[in-house]
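Hi, here's the filled form for the chain we discussed.

Project: internal
Contact: R.S.
Residues: 96
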Amino acid sequence: MDHVMHGPVRVNLEVFITNGEQNAMATITMSQPGRYPSPADIEASIKDALEQLPEGFRLMTKREFWDSLVEERAGARVRLAMPGAAEFEPVAPAAT
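And the returned structure, exactly as it came back:
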């Protein structure tokens, strides 16, 4: 086990999920307090969590996620233009 600590942190991910009719949020606790997760750590944690979701649930698409954020802020369903590409963009490696 790697005992490197980057800071006084514990990282929880809030992942937006849906079954096409119901939207929900799943909270994923990263396993190593004190460490900043890498994109690969986050991807692996999400993959593991997906196996534990209730049947029929999946990650939201970018459009579903954007619409959910807009509804949360506006208090009503409003369809607005979505920023960026139609799909989620990959995470760029951190600059060193």
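Let me know if anything looks off before we file it.
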